[in-house]
């Protein structure tokens, strides 16, 4: 019931912010970027924020806000530079008592760097996709529908068919049947979107199925990261759901790929 109530409250707010755009959309993306930065920094740092975490949050908020103000390359450069600077090795790394501890801390900071850069690029991709003239809103809704259809299709196919596990060491409940079911569900979303928007069905169907596989890969990647850091959820900010990263792991994986897909094919679709 808690999960259902959280979804009933949050989902309409997100959809309305995307629908109306402008300041509503900007507030949504900036808030999400900051909260995801907070979750990722704490995940990588044993539940603590520290100065690295503050730098990560600031990097994601400023780069996302700058890209919202003007979709230019400078915010991307700032994002990458900020991600690097926010993970500059701290003195604890060099004062570690042995090589194994130093190696572990160095890998953790590498995770922080890569994760920060990727979350930022996903946020910038989200902004670019929503800003596509005349089509941005429909495009973002299609991407959300693909991700949600993937989750639903994978769940029912996995539960109904079962079969070999997809990655038992990372996520014991995921199956190959679920992967196929999620991809087929996303393909059906592509068919519906093509009919509603009058676009090339093949591009939307194939694109949706590819993004479905990417979304499930993103889900597995976040599960692997949480297992590595020994946590169940990225936070407890959403009652019944865990953290924001737990809810949007598939979407984060999809957004940069969707950006590349539509940026290349923007004159075709």
**Weakly predicted, low-confidence segments:** none
Helix content: over 70%
Question: How many strands in all?
Answer: 2
Total count of domains = 2
Strand content: under 5%
Q: How can the largest sheet be summarized?
A: 2 strands, antiparallel
Anisotropy-based shape: globular
* Number of alpha- plus pi-helical segments: 10
Distance between the termini: 41 Å
Along the chain, the helix and strand elements come as HHHHHHHEEHHH
Strand order in the largest sheet: 1-2
Provide the structure class.
Answer: mainly alpha
Average predicted local confidence, pLDDT: 85
Give an overview in words:
There is one protein chain. With 269 residues, the protein is an all-alpha fold. The chain folds into 2 domains: 21-131, no CATH class; 134-269, no CATH class. Helices cover 77% and strands 3% of the residues. It contains 10 helices and 2 strands. Strands 1-2 form a two-stranded antiparallel ribbon. α6 crosses α7 (136-161). The longest helix has 32 residues, at 99-130. The model has no long low-confidence stretch (mean pLDDT 85).
